[in-house]
Design brief:
homodimer, alpha+beta, Rossmann fold, 3 domains, YbaK protein
């Protein structure tokens, strides 16, 4: 039995200064976690109980699907991550350190290499496969901006698993088994989720989906079709191919466009001075060439120009997902100074491309289709060119999904409008394929005695992040409201009496009886604390069932409060045990 | 149910090349652990089950004694450890790293600072105390020589707890509560232990005891009295004070002692050329001055000379425990070159001491009592001095427990002979006192409204080390022999039939029935593996109860093998479930 009089917890009336999101605010205020380092949190007793319950559900479902639990060190030797190039690719996101002999180590952000080598170490035959292994372990990532409490930390608890199969059909089966297990896990955690297509990021590999909890404070933006079942992380959305206008265009012509620093001013100028006969010029007639710099893992940089329609913004994060592990940033003044061929504000595709005068790589958003006509910079300050046709007057080095996806964009599957929402990534399933097995030499003998490279999947759930995500979903202005399956205890008994009085004796008796029934009980047995403070604390802490043993005891009743429904019911004390046990058992 | 056909394990017939001790050898060979890094091990499914069972017993007893579980990050900010000086004091034993912004962090070797600050953060009154908090967490120490597998790793699992009390009586009670809980834990783990007095090491503080498992491969040496209940780590043994000879000594006299490079040759020379009238010269008449160098945490060094009787060795580890956190090593040639006053092989106390010609600090082992007479170097090559009396002819700067403790040394309590044994440190209980609370400002208001500094205890159990210690105690030439409470499963069923035959069907049925009774079952269901290989694997893996379903099934029997007793009994298959369940339940 937990007793408020001795429980190591202090609730706070005020929000912590650094807390941006409800889960962070409430988990700190209710005494579940405490900041210990940038992006590092200490779990207090109540929080630790919730984390361990989430962990137990994850473990149970992983075991049920036949995955086997192992546990690796967090501190890993550099040479293994050198083999796959990830020592460098991870860039600043990796915590690196040296031991007393000067040998290099890292703190594992994810363990693909270690699992691959372990299976290579133990297994050698197709008969050994398939196998799925997992661990629930502390992970480390040197996030540039740790934020939102447990939602983006630098030290966090993760379940990572890996499947090993002899062929693609096996991988697909293992992938689906994990995907199904994840659905069961999030269902048990009562965590709403959307499964969206995802980019593969620094992992390599092919098919990849994310489980997102659709919560406004999430860092991920995703689209879903208003009609069909398409959904994707915005980074992974593919553009529905548009047909170009089939009209035959006028010849390209350079015109002077003084004082047109913005797309809007350019469109106004053209409508005033170079009016079209068929319709007015629009922002979507213009082609904007965005100049970026890629920073590769080896530290070298490269200039990249991306062409997008003038009515759309370039989405740096989306572009970055496609050039990962390189990082993307706008080219700065010093960068422009090294490329005098790029006339800022007037850059046109005529001077772009690997084989062009500048030699700068040039990629187009897929919406800039071959055969389409554009107004764009003339590579001379104060001039633009009209009627420049892609494929007739210029070509690019390729395409890249670059525009910021917007609500109403056509669904790539059914062309109905997409809607946009935000979410927290709570899980990721991923067909890695043979990349790691190839690099690290994991092959087995097949039925014909031939060596075949193993194909792998990688699957993650953020365990500590799940706690915060659940808190985001289940709270109100008064505090947390835990789902039963992961509540720190089953029932919170608030006793409003004083030491030794009838109320306290009845409360203690009820607590003992509930515990005897196998329930986990927290009793607020603090002496000299007002009922009002105890009620506020109970609301903040958020145990789903609160039993108040107080003044209505005089009528033989206790109060049964449901934190989710917000209801408050008088129940005869004689029925209390049976009622509470029934509530907890029905889940 | 675990099935050998799919369990992620491979047993090895040969010992791993780097394994020095039985636990390391057998845990690797039986497929419990696998080396992943220097001093870092991966837990395979069987090993992970054992570790988690040990962890569960530790948690259960800590919870039962009223300690509350929390969990800190492993990566901690430098500034907190600067406050107590431990950032430097830990020297090379600390793993240090920087984040992407260049801020300094460490990987926690122990968490005194964090716990102290957490209690300071939440608590402010005597009413809040006592409180005991603990965590079971991965710890990091950059050991100079990681060795013996799990016995001395660089990344390992530890339970560390801390008690907080208002006064000394409270600390004593908390200390005893932990000590009692530790006794219960090791009893449940079936781990034999001796509780010995210990040094405090880098921790500061006063009373301190170690729990040692008396195992020959242990790194710790301890003494216990053959008569009374005195026992101590040899580092912590105190010397029983001896009375000096009361005879009046001759005047000190320098004699030439050519060709006497050793104590033995010196004694022989003296007996031949300067014979005593009363008895022969003995090695114990000589005073050996051992020249050491201390390396302080700030990197500075200091020369220290320690005087010990010539028939005894100086124990560097024991000396080091008393000058901790400084490290101790013999002075090297370069060091001697800087001290021309120290004539190697002929150093005498006349030139030693803070106020002497050399200014070198000089400490005596307590056995060199005041009033005792010695033969020692004359500070001239080839000469020694006879009849040099401590207190008459020289004085030192103090005493230090310096000689290697030997079997037969007198017990400091009762003067009966001590015996010596080796052990593995499996637990440590420690009255820290007010050192951390003072430094970090942890005080609370007492009953009179006065601020008082809190007094603390610190208590550790090596959880992963306990697994190895148990393996050291419970094994034979054939393999491991787990105590029931932490065996990876309750029963190992070896089926010697082929897929689909009667033996296999009976084995599977028995396994299902045992599982239905709540037992954890491993069934060796491998097809095409010989009975001999299966038996060898079962012996190596070491589940205490092995059931063989094999050829004696024809007579209606199974074989019940007891791995501890080494017995093998035919049991009617009809009685098998009941017999095995009874065995497991009786523990």
């Amino acid at each position: 039995m937990l007793r408020s009089s001795t429980l190591f917890v202090r609730t706070l009336r005020d929000d912590p200064a650094d807390a941006e999101v409800p889960s962070h605010r409430l988990l700190v205020r209710a005494g579940y976690i405490r900041r210990a380092a940038p992006g590092g949190y200490t779990w207090l007793p109540l929080g630790w109980r919730v984390l361990r319950k989430v962990e137990a559900i994850v473990r149970d479902e992983m075991d049920s699907m036949g995955a086997q639990e192992v546990h690796f060190p967090a501190m890993l030797p550099r040479d293994i991550y050198e083999l796959t190039g990830r020592w460098d690719e991870y860039g600043d996101n990796l915590f690196r350190l040296k031991d007393r002999k000067g040998a290099d180590f890292l703190l594992g952000p994810t363990h693909e290499e270690m699992f691959t080598l372990l299976v290579k170490d133990l297994y050698s035959s197709y008969k050994d496969l398939p196998v799925s292994l997992y661990q629930i372990q502390t992970k480390y990532r040197d996030e540039a901006r740790p934020r939102a409490g447990l939602l983006r930390g630098r030290e966090f608890l993760m379940k990572d698993s890996y499947s090993f199969d002899i062929d693609d059909a096996g991988l697909a089966a293992s992938y689906n088994a994990h995907r199904d297990a994840y659905e069961r896990i999030f269902t048990r955690l009562k965590l709403p989720y959307v499964i969206v297509k995802a980019m593969s990021g620094a992992m390599g590999g092919s098919a990849s989906e994310e489980f997102l909890a659709p919560i406004e404070v999430g860092e991920d933006t995703f689209v879903r079709c208003t009609k069909c079942d398409y959904s994707a992380n915005t980074e992974a959305v593919t553009t529905a191919a548009l047909s170009p206008d089939t009209a035959s265009y006028a010849t390209a012509a350079v015109v002077e466009t003084p004082n047109c620093p913005t797309i809007a001013s350019l469109v106004d100028f053209l409508n005033a001075n170079h009016a079209r006969s068929d319709r007015a010029w629009k922002a979507s007639d213009t082609l904007k060439n965005v100049v970026l710099q890629l920073r590769h893992p080896d530290g070298s940089t490269e200039v990249l120009v991306v062409g997008v329609p003038g009515d759309r913004e370039a989405d740096i994060k989306r572009i970055e997902a496609q050039v990962s592990p390189s990082e993307v940033e706008p080219l700065d003044d010093a960068g422009f100074a090294k490329h005098p061929g790029l006339i800022r504000g007037y850059i046109g595709p005529q001077v772009l491309g690997a084989t062009s005068a500048t030699g700068v790589r040039y990629l187009l958003d897929p919406s800039v289709v071959t055969g389409s006509e554009w107004v764009t910079g003339a590579n001379v300050a104060g001039s633009h060119v009209l009627h420049l046709v892609n494929g007739r007057d210029f070509t690019a080095d390729g395409t890249i999904e670059a525009v910021e996806v917007a609500a109403g964009d056509p669904c790539p599957t059914c062309r109905e409008p997409l809607e946009i929402a935000r979410g927290i990534e709570i899980g990721h399933v991923f067909q890695l394929g043979r990349k790691y097995a190839d690099t690290l030499g994991l092959s087995v003998l097949d039925q014909n005695g031939k060596q075949v490279v193993v194909t792998m999947g990688s699957y993650g759930i953020g365990v500590s992040r799940a706690v915060a995500s659940i808190a985001e979903v289940f709270h109100d202005d008064l505090g947390l409201k835990w789902p039963r399956a992961i509540s720190p205890v089953d029932v919170h008994i608030v006793v409003t009496g004083k030491n030794g009085d009838d109320i306290t004796i009845a409360g203690e008796k009820l607590a003992a009886e509930l515990e005897a029934q196998g329930l986990e009980v927290l009793i607020d047995d603090r002496n000299g604390v007002s009922p009002g403070v105890k009620f506020k604390d109970a609301e903040l802490i958020g145990i789903p069932t609160i039993v108040v043993v107080g003044k209505s005891l005089a009528e033989g009743n206790i109060e049964l409060r449901d934190r989710h429904a917000g209801t408050n019911e008088a129940v005869p004390i004689a029925d209390a045990v049976q009622r509470v046990v029934a509530l907890v058992r029905e889940g």
